[in-house]
Amino acid sequence: MRNSQNSAADDSDPIIRVRGLVKKFGDHVVHDGVDLDVRRGEIIGIVGGSGTGKSVLLHQIVGLLKPNAGQIEVFGKSVRDTSEEEYRAIRRRWGVMFQDGALFSSLTVRQNVEVPMREQLDMPDDLRETLAGIKVRMVGLPDNAQGKYPSDLSGGMRKRAGFARAISLDPEIVFLDEPTAGLDPIGAAAFDTLIGRLQAALGLTVFMVTHDLDSLHAICDRIAVLAEKKVLAVGTMAEMLEIDHPWVREYFHGPRARAALKTTDNDEVR
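Given the sequence above, the corresponding structure tokens read:
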């Protein structure tokens, strides 16, 4: 696990604050009173079993789904009770990377990275292209990837392109939805390293939905466990290992967890 001061940071002024969140799909209740604080500058991993609503929580925070009840504040402002203009200003300060990058298939990598710039910024075409190229290089893609289409890329390259788009507006928060899903162990470890390096270099707060134990061990400052329709626990990996809840124990003490812990203890990401 990375060495960070954020796990001891003050919770009194969280960059993301969720209180009493309720989300239903018909009669099915996914969240029933979710509370969560995310600290500025940390990497927090959101975990939980299938159907616990990890991605649903992310989608509510960024405004893609509307909660049935509860409050969500980002940068100290409500994302529910705000004007469209204020919401656009808040949204300008975060970036999102969806599973598999969610790139537009008809656009090249560079054009995909330019999309948020076109939507949010008024700048000359040549400057926008230059900035997009810088973001592509920042995520470790070669220059010749800029002109390729998503279908020409490997899964790992598509994820990196999606990450480049997520940071195209120099955000303060990046939301990552299963960033290492579908990658082989080497590719997943490389992507963890990329997340950690860019977080440190850009001063990002990273909200990461994941099921990848290696990622939790390697780069997360804290972990939030979704279970029983709520956030059951939030804490460091060491604190997770002390929790006696059946699912938490199975998840963090099972064979895969022991393998991940052994690997990252011997070869930390940073």
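The first helix runs from residue 54 to 61. Try to locate this feature in the token string yourself.
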